[in-house]
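[agent] plan:
  1. take the single chain provided in the ticket
  2. run structure prediction with default settings
  3. attach structure tokens to the ticket
  4. add a short note for the reviewer (M.T.)
[agent] executing step 1
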Amino acid sequence: MKVPRIPLAALTTALVVATMVPTPAEAFPATSKSTVLNYLRSITGVNIVSGQHNKEPASAPGQYSRQVYDITGQWPGLWGGDMMFRADDINNRQRVVDQAKTEWANGSLVTLTWHACSPTVGRTCEFEGGVKTQISAGQFQEIATGGTNLNNVWRSRMAEVVPFLRQLRDAGVPVLWRPFHEMNESWNWWGNRPGANGGAKLFQQMRDYFDSQGLDNLIWVWNVQDNPAGGWANYYPGSSYVDVVSLDVWYKNHPSAGDYQQIQSIAGGKPIALAEMGKIPNASLLTSQPRWTYFMVWSEQLRGSNTNAEIQAAYFHPRVFNQGEINLGGGGGGTPPPASGGVGKIRGVASGKCADVNGASTANGAQVQLFTCDANGAAQAWTIGSDGTVRALGKCLDVAGGVNADGTRVQTWDCVAGSPNQQWRYNGTAQSLVNPATGRCLDATGQSTADRTPLQIWSCTGNSNQRWTIPA
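[agent] step 2 finished; step 3 output follows
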């Protein structure tokens, strides 16, 4: 379990907690976007990366991440910045890029958004009347139509950003790039335009243009706000244009179960994320909606909408990864079990006993239990598959009914390709087997070590009855 680490400055707050020295961050080497995407896939349902946005001024691009550290003693696992809109900030874009390089080198992922000025106004602007502005349907279509005056203006604005993103490419820094955010909202000039010729078309055109400029370090993050009107899929530019599907949560504190399902339906298996929030995730959200891969708290909302205790609780939660806890090489806490192709035992660390198919049954629904090792032959011979399944007696280890609840029993069932009920990831540090679809760990019921103790899924606690060794 993660131990709170609080800097000296935090002791001046009303909350008194234990003080420890932060763990040094593990620097990230230059790498490709596929490394980060694979990492996000690997932690889906198992862990979530903490994140903090840093808004203008561009002259202080790390100020809000620093506030996180002052409160928690931890740096966010994701640094967020912006390509900006005001003249002073656009002239300081280099400071933003330099901060992104620093954060990456220190062991944080990087995300950038862009509050772009409308092509109907100057290349620099104020938020009100420049980013937050309304344009006519005719003006929008001119922006989206190649060869027109407004389209040429827009392409020149995009061209100004390319050299900065190219610096990050050349430094080996993958960027979670989130343009045209909150595409379903009407506050911005690009938003509230559903359909193939709406905001989705601008997204497609930008990706095509940036791809042509060699910006292969960009991870394309599509984004909507939790507008209760729904219909978010009407703004989706298509699977071939999107790498991560994300939600901004402003209509409510946390996404509803319906929001969570709608985003997953659109994503179709792609990583999903909470790209902006005012209220930091709590334990209830992290447990009930385990497939979010990162969250990002919005700048001044960190302190404006959260107590120090709430911020600390999120950053100290055992499922949350902060700077220095992200392992891009091994996938951190959510790697698939190694594909040995061989057969071996899954042994409980606390009990010394093995995962066993009751009665060596080959029937669907056979209970999986603890039993003295070596007693039951094939009933304890598990194959760890590269497809994320764990198999014995020709069946797959399965969460009964795919139910996302503590105490749901674990059984064997006919293997179904891609079934979330039958996917497992092994955390070598915690020695836990996690079902990503539920975010829960394989658990010996009641912490019992007796023969025939049923195995179940339970919220991951790090307790000894959730620790296992698997075939090498």
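[agent] step 4 note for reviewer: Residues 8-321 form a domain with the TIM Barrel fold (CATH 3.20.20.80).
[agent] ticket updated
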